[in-house]
Amino acid sequence: MPSTRRTARQTDLLERLVALLAAEGFASFTLDELTERLRCSKTTLYQLAGSKQELVREAVKHYFRSAAEAIEKQVADTSAPAERVVVYLNAVAQQLRPLSRRFLDDMAGFEPAREVYEANTRLAAGRIRQLIADGVAAGAFRDVHAAFVGEVVAATMQEIQRGEVSARTGLTDAEAYAELASLIVHAVSP
Questions:
Q1: Distance of alpha carbon 157 from alpha carbon 20, whole angstroms
Q2: What is the DSSP letter of 7?
Q3: Which residue among 44, 121, 139, 153 is least enclosed by CB atoms within 10 Å?
Q4: C-beta neighbour count of 28 within 10 angstroms
Q5: CATH number of the domain at 56-188, please?
Q6: CA distances from 156 to 47, 65, 164, 173 (A)
């Protein structure tokens, strides 16, 4: 069973695993293929998680935890309410760029990974809700229902990440996030 504290070697292995899975997906990989590609033993992988399913879930959790930290660092460097919303959504797009369509499709089809993704989308909706509420309180935004705005953003984020917005509009994910940021900021501006 994996420990809650990882060694530097385990963290490095987990980050290499995340990079591999993000680029190529995970549904078709066997543990033998993973050990070969990562140049490690099954025992070493089992130190991260007890099964392939748990390993995938750990990789997805690690990816989103790291992404959230990077996003929040960018938001922390911004003070204007409208800019904070734009920076947040653009940072989300930037963090999702390395995820291949195959990875996103595999994640959508694998419940433990999908649960992590959905939890992170709920957190993102909550963060947008907070950023909007802060802007309303500061007088930078008109008095809107911040929870509703957060839900609209979350629903749109899910469609972007599933590739539905791109298929219907031709926008890349990054372009879609930029349009979403512009839409939200203009919708809440006085």
A1: 24
A2: P
A3: 139
A4: 9
A5: 1.10.357.10
A6: 37, 21, 9, 11
Q: How confident is the model at residue 105 (pLDDT cuts 50, 70, 90)?
A: confident
**List of residues 6+ apart from 14 with CB closer than 8 A:** 6, 48, 58, 59, 62
User: Collapsing DSSP states into helix, strand and coil, what is residue 140?
Assistant: coil
Q: pLDDT tens digit string along 39-85?
A: 999 998 888 998 889 999 999 999 999 999 999 999 999 999 999 99
CB 88 within 8 A of CB 131: yes
For 52, how many CA atoms within 13 A lie in the half-sphere containing its CB? 12
How many Cα atoms within 13 Å fall on the side-chain side of residue 107?
Answer: 31
Give dist(CA 187, CA 156) in Å, integer: 15
d(CA 130, CA 68): 15
Reported as a single tens digit per residue, the pLDDT across 7-31 is: 888 899 999 999 999 999 999 988 9
The closest alpha carbon to 47, from 61, 62, 58, 63, belongs to: 58
The label of the residue with tokens 């809107």 reads 144
14, 58 contact by CB (below 8 A): yes
Total-model pTM: 0.84
